[in-house]
Amino acid sequence: MTGSYNAILVIASYCVAVIASYTAIYFGTRVFHFDGAQRRNWLVAGALCLGTGIWSMHFVGMSAFEMPMEMTMSFNAGLTVLSWLPALVASGLALHVITLPRVSAAAIAAASLIMGAGIFSMHYLGMYAMQMQPAIQYDPVWVSISAAIAVGASGAALMICRKIRDVPVQYAVWVKALAALVMGAAICGMHYSGMVAAIYPMDGAMDQGNHLQGNWMGVPTAIVVSGLLLLAIYVAYSDLRARDRARQAQERAQDQARQAAFYDAATGLPNRSHLERQLLERLTVTARGAQPEPFLLFYVELQNPDDAQVLEVAQQLKRSFSRAEQVVRYSSDSFMVLHQPLSGEEVKRKLVTLNTAFLSNASIGRWGWGVSQYPASASNSRGLMQGAQRVREWLTPEDAAPGGRQVA
């Protein structure tokens, strides 16, 4: 006994398979970022979505088959529910495998066999749920083909889902959609090859104990399940967006706390704490015993500066020491510059440059400078900073004017 297929329901079954595949891919790529209880919860939710989607696609596809002689397809309720379990197990295994950090080719092959067996079992349990007298017979060749498609489709799905994690973000949505279309076609291919394997007896009749009527399981099932799967994607997307916003807010708070702890609010320069941490890192001997590179600390101290003078000196120091590693606001009236080693003549030229620049700003008065070098002056950060703070000379901008005192 042969039948025909309702084209609308065939298309609907493919749509369900595609949506279920996209849901699985979406969950699979997201689960990778979680661990512990969160990872387990997402795996369970993803397995429920994918397993239910594949299972529903099967029954939409079954409903697409139109029996001859106006026979209405029906199913045993208990066996129908039982056929759902292999789909869940196969889906859970698939999601687990695609979210592992590393998976060998042998593990992929084994997972493909188990997942394919789960989908194969779901399909033929579902067919068995369509109790008929006499019983449905099966063509062993087409059964073998459907089994091969189930295993092959499972392997392809696992490989696709693992590769998607490496796709650039701007292409991820399109690649996921294309992968879902391919996976949906593979799932439908397995189902309809399995349907071809079925040989219905000419005098067959549905069992009176079948309580689920196929005439209402097609379009409604497709609509309800597709809606639920899309809702699951929306809920998952909303949850992840909320997590991203919370993470970004936490990062901003940490950045603000770090800024307050290691940077001066008035000038935006690193502060003393930042310099101390930087020197500690610079003076640490490496694991191979390599000694730190030499460097210089240049110190500038102002006498009773106001905010405008502090800002002016900060800007001038950054211009004059453009190759410095750091210009630091050391205290309310002083600055420190971390620089590569300089000779005495180079230091003198820096002093002249600074004093000449200060001459153009009448508000800047007397200022002092000091310097220390590693390793000549000291071998630790405390000694270097204390050495730099010993003011060697007090200057005024007028010293840079024609006829003024020469910088020593």
UniProtKB/TrEMBL annotation:
Cited PROSITE patterns: MHYT
Entry keyword Amino-acid biosynthesis: no
Highest taxon in the source lineage: Bacteria
SMART domains, per the entry: GGDEF
Keywords for the protein's UniProt record, in alphabetical order: Membrane, Transmembrane, Transmembrane helix
GO cellular component: membrane
InterPro entries, A to Z: GGDEF_dom, MHYT_dom, Nucleotide_cyclase, Rev_trsase/Diguanyl_cyclase
Membrane spanning residue stretches: 6-29, 41-65, 77-98, 105-129, 141-161, 173-199, 219-237
Domain named MHYT: residues: 5-201
Transmembrane helix in keyword set: yes
Record-linked PANTHER family: DOMAIN SIGNALLING PROTEIN, PUTATIVE (AFU_ORTHOLOGUE AFUA_5G11310)-RELATED (PTHR35152)
Name used for this protein in its record: NO-binding membrane sensor protein with MHYT domain
Organism expressing this protein natively: Marinimicrobium koreense
